[in-house]
Amino acid sequence: MKYELPPLVYAAGDLAPHLSAETLEYHHGKHHLAYVNNLNNLLPGSPFEEATLETMIRKAEGGIFNNAAQVWNHAFYFATFSSSGKKTPSGTIAKAIDAEYGSFEGFREAFTKAATTLFGSGWAWLCMKPDGRLTITQESNAGNPLRSGLVPLMTCDVWEHAYYIDYRNRRPDYIKGFWELLDWKIIGERYDEALKK
Ligand code: MN
Description:
This protein is mainly α and 197 residues long. It has eight helices and three strands. Strands 2-1-3 form a three-stranded antiparallel sheet, with helices on both faces. A hairpin with a 5-residue loop joins strand 1 and strand 2. Helix 4 packs across helix 5 and helix 5 packs across helix 7. The site of manganese (II) ion has 7 residues, from helix 1.
């Protein structure tokens, strides 16, 4: 199977000023693309030649795991943004957030802390546990919570390449802008879908 770079569903400049067109052109057009190309180079002759990305995330190790997970993680991350999205959760996911974190504000604080304190490169995640409740996890490098049986709902890329052009070393400022870009309609639909399974 040959993987392709999934296109962004918005223009590179649409997320400014929180993320610039230049950041998107590098992050999507160069970094995400490199993971796709690396994976396509690693797959021929491997046991994962016909596997889905999810299978590789669950079962593969080394280069195939790293690149398959980074292909999936970036597609998932970029697909959560919208320039005119729903800024706050509602419906089922809002109830689940209130149940776990007291309020949306409480959740924002807990997630921001996870993203800010993650040491080095990696991803902070909002996930659904098998019992339907929410949890926040930190994953290093290419880590993806599918590997531990959780359902990813939202993620923040805290690799420096995600923010260095716009924010230099100021990860907390990047995370502040990140909240402005999330579309809670998309995240809410992911949660409703996950609850059905
Ligand atoms: Mn990245």
